[in-house]
Structure formats: structure tokens, C-alpha cells
Fold this sequence. Notes:
- This protein is mainly alpha-helical.
- The protein folds into 2 domains: 22-64 and 214-372, no CATH class; 67-204, no CATH class.
- Helices cover 71% and strands 3% of the residues.
- The protein has 15 helices and 3 strands.
- Helix 5 (67-91) packs across helix 6 (111-129).
Amino acid sequence: MMLRSIIPDPIARHPWGVILPLTLLVLFGSTVLYSVAGNSLRPYALSHFTRYLVFLVMAITLSMFRRDLFKLASYPIYGTVLVLLVLVELIGGIGGGSQRWLNLGFMMLQPSELMKPVIVLVLARFFSDLPPSMTVDVKALLPAVALVLLPVGFVAIQPDLGTALAITFGAGVVIFLSGLPLRWFIGGGLAAAIAAPIAFFTVLHTYQQQRVLVFLNPEADPQHTGYHILQSYIAIGSGGFFGKGFGKGSQSALGYLPEAHTDFAFATMAEQWGLAGGVFVLAIFAVILRWGMNVSRQAPDRFSQLLAAGMTCTIFFYVAINLMMVMGLAPVVGIPLPFVSHGGSSMMTNMICIGTIMAVERWSQSGRRSLS
């Protein structure tokens, strides 16, 4: 109430209770990236925070769009990103053994990252238009499955298993919350459990198989396939409760910890800031995720509810898989930690999710004001 009396109402209506902690998290991530670069703002820390500011403006702009515009644009945006995924297969750039990027001249675009929020948007539109009586009809599920399998197939052959799983997870959340019978999901889970061993030997690439085997026994090959996760163990464990101190992480500073600025940024942070730093990061993520689910529960209609919940769970997937990965609770799949790890595509995707949740919150506020 005091905030609204000091600054203009359009500014006060923004969710500052989330934006300010989020900004603090990005600043904290920038300090980690600053230390990784040998106490230098370049090449990671400065670009990390600059990208956040740019994408924050994008998120706030996105939050001002009307609900009808989101629904109207859902299928055209999905089709556009799908075309970009096809272009990746035809003319995409190759890096790290994968073909994932399009060179636009001024930036390298990873279309598979865009598909993470887009699949949530298009499925929220699909199920919001579906009559409730048809939700329990298996025929209604087939178009939704097709919408998911098309991009997942293109992403999987890049190959990028982590992103394919992220797209599937976000889609699965929206499909589950749309009200489909629980027995369908139980059946799908059993089918996946049966198919997993077959897929391991017939579908996964050799390096992907090695990641699974390393996850089960990282000590079997400590100098090669198990090197990443063992160095992450050492970094996190050596941090103790309060860490070694800012800039004093030997694993990252001496180059023992691979990908210290991207996939294993949390391990870098834990070595320097210890358990206290980890709790701080988790607390801010808890604030963000709680806000997103509250927005979904208070949303004015089915489309808005599915949209906010799907975007929130997309962020959750990033956080959960990255933390499990660096602690050896999941195979290494190359998913960065949101707002902490360096990476423009990841920052863009997560800020699109934040901006969309902000938009849903604005729609709810507009509905309440119209009733008062």
C-alpha cells in the first residue's frame, strides 16, 4: 500500500516481490561468473547481467500483452519455431558435436530453447479450446501428442536429450493439469519404464549411454567419463558450510571443474559460498516458484491457469535437473542453472516464462478491478 502511494500505479503493479529477489540472484550469479573469469567482468559476468536487464525489459513488455493476443499468436508462433528447428537440421551450426544453432549474424539462436515455453503456450491454447466433455476422450489426446512429438523428434536428432526432456516435461505438466484421466499417465509411465532399457541400447548415442553409466558409477572411470561429476563432488563438498571465500575456489580457479561457468556453476558457487550460498539460491527459487503457482491458482480462466503452471514448471525443471546433475542424482544432460549459469538462450527462455507469468497475474488483477 505504501509503495502504491509513492510511485505511479502502472509501475507499482509489477511483481517487485519477485523481480527484486530475482535481480539479487542474477547479481549473485554474476559474482560467481566474475570469479570464474579470474576476477574479471569479461567474458561472463558483465554479459550475464546485461542480458538479464535486456530480457527483463522484454519480460515486462510481454506482460502487457492481452490474453487474446497470447491465444491468437499461439499456433503461428509454434509453427514458426518448428520451421526454425527444421532449418537447424538443414543449415544449423555445429558445436560440441551437436547441431543446435542458427547464425543470425548478430547472434547465435538456439530454436530448441524457444520451444520450451512455446509448447506450453500452444498446449494451453489447445486444451482451453477443448470442451470439458472431450477431455476424457483418447481422440482429444492424439493432436496434443502430435504437437509434442514433432519438436521433440527434431530436438532429439540434433542430438540434445536434455532439451527434448525439458520440452516433454513442460508439455506433460499442461496435459496432466488439463484433467486427463490419471490412468492414462500411469499407463504411460509403465510403458516408458518398459521402453527405457530398449531405448538405451537402440536409440541413445554412445556418449549418452556413457552418461547414464557414469551416473550409476562415476568412480569406474574417474579420469575420463566420470571426471565431470567427481570434480563437482569435490567442489561442493570442499565448500563446507560457509565456503572457502569469494574467488578462492580451487576447483574452478585451477580449471579442474569443467564448464564451471555454465552447467556446473552451482558447484562453483558452493565451493566459494558453501551450504549458506546454496540455501540462499534455493530460497530465491522457492520464492519464484511459489509466486508462479499462486498466479496459476488465482488465474481467471483455464487457458491462463495452464499457461502460468506450465511456465512455472518449465523453470522448475531447469532448477531441479541442474541441481540433481551437479550433485550426482541425475545423469549429466547439459542443462544450466537459471539466472546463475552463463548462457543467453537459457536466460531468454526463463525470462519468457517469467514475463508470461507476469502477464497472467496482470490479467487476474484486471479482472478483479473490473469486478470492484
